[in-house]
Amino acid sequence: MYQYDHYDQTLVNQRAQQFRDQTRRFLEGELTEDQYRPLRLMNGLYIQRHAPMLRVAIPYGLLSSIQMRTLAHIARTYDQGYGHFTTRQNIQYNWPKLEEVPDILDDLAKVQMHAIQTSGNCIRNTTSDHLAGVAADELEDPRPYCEIIRQWSTLHPEFAFLPRKFKIAVSGAQRDRAATQVHDIGLQLIKNARGEVGFEVLVGGGLGRTPIIGVVIRDFLPKEDLLSYLEAILRVYNQWGRRDNKYKARIKILVKETGIASFAQWVEKEWATIRDGMRLDQAEIDRVSAFFKTRQYLSLPEVDPALEEQIARNQAFAAWVRRNTVTHKMKGYRAVFLSLKPHGQPPGDMTDTQMNAVADLMDRFSFGEIRVTHTQNLVMADVEQQHLLDLWQALDHLGLATPNVGTATDMITCPGLDFCSLANAASISIATGIQSLFDDLDYLYDLGDIRINISGCMNGCGHHTVGHIGILGVDKKGEEWYQITLGGSSSNDASLGERLGPSVAKIEVTQTIEHILLTYRDLREGEETFLDTVRRIGMEPFQERVYGHH
Amino acid sequence: MDIIKDGRIQADTLTHLDQDAALPKGAFSVSLTRWQSEKSALLATGQPLAVRLLPAEIVDDLGEDLPLLSMVVLEMNPFTDGRSFTQIRSLRERLGFRGEIRVLGDFIRDQMFFLHRLGANAFEFAPGTDLKDRLKAFEEFTVTYQAASDQPQPLFRRRAHP
Ligand code: HEM
Ligand code: SF4
Do B147 and A121 touch (CB under 8 A)? Predict the structure, then answer.
């Protein structure tokens, strides 16, 4: 993975020092609450229901074992012994003390980490495919470009006070695992007719209150123009994005109100003035890329007879291999998912003990690295097949081997009423309620790949609008109710879910979801997935089943 | 009153004129609208001329007049309105303005490094501000990834490639 040189390190050290000073000035009354707010947000510090929340950046979701141990240390020393992995591949701590945040940043800086631009109206952590570099369907590893974007966007002098937050995602594979279509800018590596690799650029996607799918602004952007083109889009947005209404301030609204054709013209005009001066050197692309090509893979046989035998003998192991591991571009390796969705636990949470133990497993089995997925799980991307059984046993012992990745109990869930001051309703207890439907794992597996996403309010941190089943907490006269949507997706076939009907009371959510799943089971054809079934049969059969009962 | 200019604390006598305040003897600044409506009278004063821009105003509206101006003043209110940053950059890099670019308003110390990077070279504060403290803004970072007015090359061109 990318390693800091003295420039990167100096900047992160100085940033930690700057934040220490800002916090001191705030605590001593030199900075007002209003002045300190954007400064703390630009360092990932929210004030929420019980305590500040600190969001630490995990650039494109990639972590080393050393970094994982530091995350454990922070959870243990400054928090209540756990951290929460987020949908943007970062980690959040729910209980740090404001006075101690500067110390946390110092600890992070020692392992090449920071909280720079993890919230606030600025360019956020660039996210990517959690299978980057190991996926068989990949054209090129997107992470070098994410790192190049990270550096360009870090303390960018012009774009620290944008109208609203700005999120970029990069994917290099055929299958979009980075939700590029629901980002402010989505970059997809593609090959043009001349055989050159560059980017298809999407703009104006986003979730939140007004979810919108991004549109193509450029079919093909040469790599060397990556930064100048991003800069042109950001400049147009900074100048023209709405600042009169924070609910209309995202770039998606600007693109929509302007129309993509005019918006693209503005960008092209700005781009023409900066393009030549901002060309990315091939030497820099090569320098950064080299960090991601350091793997010494063994040449292994495709099939490992010992593994086949273990699978045949041990049903639980077999289920885990099937559900929680995927193929790797190299023969004899698999990518292994660690499920952070054990039934009955808040999705995405991990204790310091688990983090430390996982760091050891990363060293033993996966070149000392791990990735965070945007569905709030982890992936050890480079595991030799012959180690799967050992790894499974270790993970099972840690409670990280629930064989449910990609299934109905692998939900994305925002913190909701338990932590978030903006929430209308609980999210976590809704998730655990749904998980309680699945004591019988065969029932879960029979339903196949299903994405259920839950948000506690329309800000949509839980991506409910792009869930195959979306659950949104709404407030009805002070009571928690839930709006259900069906048919959303954030993958290649991105779409926004459609409303099922009137919202349902909290105690009815679990049963409603069960009715929806049973409707699918009854009406699917052959191997048809949930999403395909919804798209084929429409809402009506689901509505009949859910509302017909009342 | 003292201001920070070119990295130093200096005395300054510029008066910011309202829409219909009488023209003073010394240096002054006017709003964009006053500039547009009274251009020839203002030029006739023979004084160095400064025009103030609000965040919502477009630098290109000054375009052809820029050579007539010795200074552009950006009123950064509220301080979170980031359009000022793009205004400064456009003035320096796209429109090639070489005169003084001064920031005025509610901006905070923690923004000065960025403003300076983009090409602002003067900072005017509310009376009573501790200017020595504000000078620290320029020393917080020694590393920058991006090219800007203070640094012609991005870091990737300055890094020694192996
Ligand atoms: C408890 C503290 C949190 C607060 C106060 C909060 C607040 C918000 C708000 C106000 C928005 C809407 C922004 C907009 O529409 O422009 C938002 C969006 C979002 N948040 Fe959170 N959030 C919190 C926690 C989280 C967590 C834990 C995650 C990840 C699991 C998360 C991920 C997101 C995402 C992905 C979006 C939507 C991004 C988009 O619009 O494209 N948030 N959040
Ligand atoms: S979706 Fe709403 S309730 Fe959930 S974390 Fe975001 S702001 Fe809070």
Answer: no
Ligand 1 atom with minimal separation from the A376 CA: 30
The complex's ipTM works out to: 0.97
- Whether the per-residue pLDDT at A47 is higher than 80: the answer is no
CA dihedral B36, B41, B43, B49 (to 10 degrees): -60
Question: Does A3 lie at the interface with B, CB-CB under 8 angstroms?
Answer: no
Task: Let me know if B132 is exposed, middle or buried by CB neighbors in 10 A (0-12, 13-18, 19+).
Answer: exposed
Nearest atom in ligand 1 to A167's CA: 41
Rounded CA separation A82/A355 (Å)? 9
Q: Which residues pair with A133 in a beta bridge?
A: none
Distance from C-alpha of A273 to C-alpha of A521, rounded to nearest angstrom: 57
Spatial distance between the Cα atoms of A374 and A384, rounded to a whole number of angstroms: 24
Q: Which residues of B touch A274 (CB under 8 A)?
A: 93
Note whether A157 contacts B83, CB cutoff 8 Å: no
- Residue to probe by mutation, ligand 1, list A126, A459, A472, most atoms within 8 Å of CB: A459
Q: Which residue has the tokens 């720079």?
A: A116
Residues with CB under 6 A from ligand 1: A 46, 48, 53, 86-88, 92, 164-165, 167, 206-209, 250, 414-415, 419-420, 422, 459-461
Mean pLDDT of A111-116: 97
How many alpha carbons fall within 13 Å on the CB side of residue B2? Answer: 12
How close does chain B come to A516, measured CA to CA in Å?
Answer: 46
pLDDT, average across residues A119-131: 95
Query: What is the band of A197 on the pLDDT scale with cuts at 50, 70, 90?
Result: very high
> Hey, whose CA ends up nearest to atom 15 of ligand 1?
A208
Burial tier of A99 (Cβ tally within 10 Å: 0-12, 13-18, 19+): exposed
pLDDT tens readout for residues A524-539? 999 999 999 999 999 9
Q: How far apart are CA A55 and CA A346, in angstroms?
A: 17
Give me the CATH topology for the region B2-158: TIM Barrel (3.20.20)
Confidence of residue A550 (pLDDT cuts 50, 70, 90): low
Cβ–ligand 2 distance for A213 under 6 Å, the answer no
Judge whether residue A298 has pLDDT over 80. Answer: yes
Give Dmax (Cα) for chain A: 68
In chain A the domains, ranked by start, together with CATH numbers, are 6-109 (3.90.480.20), 134-289 (3.30.413.10), 305-398 (3.90.480.20), 412-548 (3.30.413.10)
Q: Do B113 and A157 touch (CB under 8 A)?
A: yes
Instruction: Out of B94, B108, B159, name the one closest to residue A273 (CB).
Output: B94
Beta-bridge partners for A285? none
In A164-250, where does DSSP find H-type helix? Answer: 226-240
Confidence (pTM): 0.94
Which residues of chain B make contact with A238, given a CB cutoff of 8 A? 82-83, 85-86
CA separation (Å) from B31 to B22, B51, B74? 14, 6, 10
Instruction: Please give the distance, rounded to the nearest whole angstrom, from the Cα atom of residue A206 to the centre of ligand 2.
Output: 15
Q: Is A48 in the pocket of ligand 2 (CB under 6 A)?
A: no
Strand partners, B28: B15, B49
